[in-house]
Amino acid sequence: MADLVNMTEREVINHTLRTFQAQFGAVAALPNNNINMTAITIGGLISQFARGARNDIDARLMPDTAIGENLDRIGAPFGVFRRPAKKAAGAVKASGDDGAIITGAITRCDGFGYAILGPAVPPSDDCETVLICELDACPSEGLDTCATGPATIVGGCAWVWVEATTEGALGNYPAGTDLEDFADGVTLEVGPGGITGGCDIECDDDFRRRIILADPRRPSANSPCDIRDRIATAPGVTRVWIRECCGVLEFCFAMDACYPDSQPQADDAVSVASFLDDPCLAPLANVKVKPICAQNLGIELSCISGVQCDIPTLEAGLRSWLIQTAQLGETILRDDLALIIRALCPGFRFTLAPGDFVPKGGGVFTTATVTLI
C-alpha cells in the first residue's frame, strides 16, 4: 500500500500491465487488446483508491494536515482543545445631564451592538459612579459587582461596563473612540482600556501549532546548529557564532551591512531573539542572543617602494576578507595578514609592525584602518 500511495497513476498502470504480462505473456503488451485495456482501467482505479486513502489519512490522522473536527480529535489525547470565541468587553464613559440613567444597549457607528451589564469601576477619578459600596483607593477597570441598579450620571458622567452581543474579534474597539449617542444629550466614549478580549474561534493553523508543541514524540529541533540557522534568517544578520559562557550558550551575531563600524542596537537584539520563539518547538533554556561590536584591525605599514597604495581600496578589501573569514576570539597572524595585503595590492612593498592581532574580549575584527608611517 505504501508503494501504491507514492506511485503516479501511470506507474500504477504500468505495474498492473507487467503483472498481466507475467500471467498472459507478451500478448498483454499489445495495444488496444482486452488485457491491455483492463490493465489501464484497473490501474487507474487502484491509483485513485490509493490517493483517496492517503488524503483520508492526512485529513484524519496527521496533525500537520488535518482540519476541522479531525484536528479536534487529534488534540484531545494531548489535553489540547480549540480555544473558543469570546465576547469583547470594556468600560464606556457616558457624559450628559445629571440624573440620566444608562441602561439597555448601545451601538457603534457601524451598527455593532453592545449590552450594558451595569456600572463599571471608574478607571480614573475624573468622575464618580453611583455605587453601593466603597471603591478601592486605586480602582481598577471592570464591572462593579458592588453596585445595584443601573448607572446614573452624577457630576456630568458615569461609567458603564459593556459586553459585545456576539463573540469575535470584531467586538474589540480602541480607547477614546466615540460610540453612537445613547440618548439626547448623552454621549458615549470608550474608556482608556478600550473594549477588548474579543476573539474568534481558534483557527486550524494556530490550533495545530499548539498540538504539535504538546506532542512529546516531536523532536525539539533546538540543537545549537538549529538555533544558529534560525538566527541567521533574521533580517540584516550576516554571521552567527556560537560560544559557551558559564553554562549559557551565547549566539553572537553581526549585521555587517547595517552597522559596518559599530554594534547593532538593543532593538536589533530583541528582533533577532524573537526568531527563537516558535510555538511548535520546545522552549529554550540557557540561551542568550548577543550582538557583536565591530573591532578595528588597526594596521601600520612602512612603505619601502615607490608603488602607490590606494588606502581606501586596501581597507575595503581587508574588511571584506575579515567579514568572510574572521571568527570569535580568533588571532590574526601577522604573516597571514601580510599575504592578504600583497594579494590586494600587487607590487606594493611594505613592512608590518611585529606581533599578531588579538581581538579584545573574545570578539571579532570586522573593520580595518590602514596607516602609512
Question: Which SSEs are present, and which pair or pack?
Answer:
Elements: H1 2-6, H2 9-24, H3 34-61, H4 68-75, E1 89-95, E2 101-102, E3 105-107, E4 113-121, E5 142-143, E6 151-152, E7 157-164, E8 178-183, E9 186-190, H5 204-214, H6 224-232, E10 239-245, E11 248-254, H7 266-273, E12 287-291, E13 294-303, H8 311-325, H9 334-344, E14 350-352, E15 364-372
Parallel strand pairs: 11-12, 13-15
Antiparallel strand pairs: 1-7, 1-9, 2-6, 3-4, 4-5, 4-7, 8-9, 10-11, 13-14
Helix pairs in contact: 2-3, 4-5
Tell me what the structure shows.
22% of the residues are buried. The strands form four sheets. Strands 1, 3, 4, 5, 7, 8 and 9 form a seven-stranded antiparallel sheet that branches. The protein has a three-stranded mixed sheet with strand order 10-11-12. A three-stranded mixed sheet has the order 14-13-15, covered by helices on one side. The chain is built from nine helices and 15 strands. It folds into four domains: 2-61; 89-190, no CATH class; 219-291, GMP Synthetase, Chain A, domain 3 (2-Layer Sandwich); 294-372. Strand 8 and strand 9 (186-190) form a beta hairpin. The chain is an alpha+beta fold. Residues 125-141 have low confidence and may be disordered.
The total domain count is 4
Distance from first to last alpha carbon: 78 Å
- Unreliable spans are 125-141
Rg result: 36 Å
- Topology as a string of helices (H) and strands (E): HHHHEEEEEEEEEHHEEHEEHHEE
Largest sheet: 7 strands, antiparallel
- Structural class determined from secondary elements: alpha+beta
Query: Roughly how much helix do the residues carry, as a percent range?
Result: 25-40%
Total of DSSP H or I helical runs spanning 4+ residues: 9
